[in-house]
């Protein structure tokens, strides 16, 4: 195995610049929090004076706030700091940052109320309510905005951290695929470290092998790495790992242990140390929760509301299709639903009446897989069908499928029996839940995704279902549809 020499001198400063810039992030967020809390306080003072729901005759609001306001501000910021809201590891990903900031706002609210009560300080209740009712959401929005700006910078290749991945080549590739796919995380994978018995020069994905796992500290220093991911097969014993971590700590190189599991939501993962051994507990998949009455009630109420809202559109589209060629308005096609049961999936007709007879020839000509089959410039699509498909209006009649229980508002894409017959063991898990009008793959690229990516997203949804995720997908669906991204 070849141990490559260090990078050229000009390659390291970019990472050093990113480290320095990210080092200022806690101070930037501190300044932003102070500014937003001050804005919330100013709005609360003005609201207390102007809104008729409060007793404006009390007077003296500015004087009382002038005394207690700075204490409230400092206490709020201190609560965020004590609860870890300015720690580097919570920035950029996950819900931990938002939870800490939210909890800090609640703590500050409670401390202010208790403090004023104990001290018998006559703080205006109107100001108190407005300050925290406006301030807590405002600080959370500020954090969200900074995170989106950070993600955008990382997608452009800025503020990234140089990463080495240690482990067997198969485990290295698993981690590298995830980091490469999620560019917003800001991890720039520069190479791999493999066990001494592995003599390969590169992994199957083309990632260069820069040395042995036991040489991690030396390689990290030579290559200017910021973080090392330790995947499966990266060390022979806990003693070796501990010694390596101590050395990396002195070099100020970050350490991340990547378990050999992927596509598990954070809600299903828990770390519980036992006797100094950190055990990762993974809760069972949540697909059974997606079949309970809560989701069904959400589907019924949601579909009824959307049918009423879209009723003028339904009438317009029906007239447009009828006037175009006089053919049937709806296309009813047998699809496979939950537990493999067949149902008739409704759509506005967007193709010529004999479209089904032409699909076999088209698959042969294009060489496309029968799974998730779609082609650009499909000659079977009618003129009104083009814009119906572009904005997914053709799928609006599926709201009636949702209402009668064949489908859900959110779930995997419904497929025909011929496609389901090609399922392997993993893909058959899609049948645990009702198929959906929209889903993760639709809001993540739709037809622009590869088959492997679409299947991965569907399986992630099935195994990690939550009502909050459904609401998020529905919110993202409108943006994906209006942008027409991947629709044809």
From TrEMBL:
Keywords carried by this UniProt record: Membrane, Transferase, Transmembrane, Transmembrane helix
Q: What EC number(s) are associated with this protein in UniProt?
A: 2.-.-.-
Which residue spans adopt a coiled-coil conformation according to this UniProt entry? Answer: none
**Its topology with respect to the membrane?**
Multi-pass membrane protein
Kindly indicate whether the keyword Transmembrane belongs to this entry: yes
- Spell out the InterPro entries in the cross-references: Bact_transf (IPR003362), EPS_sugar_tfrase (IPR017475)
The UniProt similarity line reads: Belongs to the bacterial sugar transferase family.
Q: Encoded by which gene?
A: epsL_1
Question: Any idea where the Bacterial sugar transferase domain is?
Answer: 295-482
Mind telling me which residue stretches traverse the membrane in this protein?
24-47, 67-86, 98-120, 126-146, 297-319
Q: What is this protein called?
A: Sugar transferase EpsL
**What organism is recorded for this protein?**
Nocardioides aquaticus
């Amino acid at each position: 195995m070849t141990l490559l020499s260090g990078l050229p001198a000009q390659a390291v400063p970019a990472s050093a610049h990113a480290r320095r810039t990210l080092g200022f992030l806690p101070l930037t967020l501190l300044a932003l929090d102070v500014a937003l809390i001050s804005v919330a306080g100013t709005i609360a003072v003005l609201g207390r004076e102007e809104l008729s729901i409060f007793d404006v005759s009390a007077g003296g609001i500015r004087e009382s706030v002038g005394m207690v306001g700075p204490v409230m501000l400092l206490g709020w910021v201190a609560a965020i700091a004590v609860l870890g809201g300015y720690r580097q590891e919570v920035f950029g990903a996950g819900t931990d940052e938002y939870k800490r900031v939210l909890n800090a706002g609640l703590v500050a609210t409670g401390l202010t109320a208790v403090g004023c009560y104990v001290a018998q300080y006559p703080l205006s209740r109107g100001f108190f309510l407005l300050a925290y009712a406006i301030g807590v959401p405002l600080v959370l929005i500020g954090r969200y905005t900074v995170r989106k700006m950070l993600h955008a910078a990382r997608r452009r290749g800025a503020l990234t951290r140089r990463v080495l991945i240690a482990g067997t080549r198969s485990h290295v590739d698993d981690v590298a695929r995830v980091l490469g796919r999620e560019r917003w995380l800001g991890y720039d994978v520069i190479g791999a470290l493999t066990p001494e018995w592995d003599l390969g020069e590169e992994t199957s994905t083309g990632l260069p092998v820069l040395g042995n796992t036991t040489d991690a500290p030396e390689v990290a220093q030579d290559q200017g790495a910021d973080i090392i991911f330790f995947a499966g097969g990266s060390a022979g014993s806990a003693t070796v790992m501990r010694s390596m971590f101590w050395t990396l700590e002195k070099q100020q190189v970050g350490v991340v242990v990547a378990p050999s599991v992927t596509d598990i939501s954070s809600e299903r993962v828990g770390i519980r140390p036992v006797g100094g051994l950190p055990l990762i507990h993974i809760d069972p998949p949540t697909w059974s929760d997606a079949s309970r009455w809560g989701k069904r009630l959400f589907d019924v109420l949601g579909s009824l509301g959307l049918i009423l809202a879209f009723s003028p559109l339904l009438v317009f589209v029906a007239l447009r299709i009828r006037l175009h060629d006089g053919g049937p308005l709806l296309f009813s096609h047998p699809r496979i639903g939950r537990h493999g049961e067949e149902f008739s999936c409704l759509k506005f007709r967007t193709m010529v009446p004999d479209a089904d007879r032409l699909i076999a020839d088209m698959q042969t000509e294009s060489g496309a897989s029968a799974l998730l089959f779609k082609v650009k410039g499909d000659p079977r699509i009618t003129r009104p069908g083009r814009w119906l498909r572009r904005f997914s209006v053709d799928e609006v009649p599926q709201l009636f499928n949702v209402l009668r229980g064949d489908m859900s508002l959110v779930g995997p894409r419904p497929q025909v029996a011929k496609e389901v017959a090609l399922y392997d063991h993993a893909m058959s898990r899609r049948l645990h839940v009702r198929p959906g009008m929209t889903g993760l793959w639709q809001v993540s690229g739709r037809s622009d995704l590869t088959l492997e990516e679409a299947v991965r997203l569907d399986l992630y949804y099935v195994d990690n279902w939550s009502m909050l995720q459904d609401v998020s997908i529905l919110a993202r669906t409108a943006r994906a549809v209006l942008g027409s991204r991947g629709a044809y």
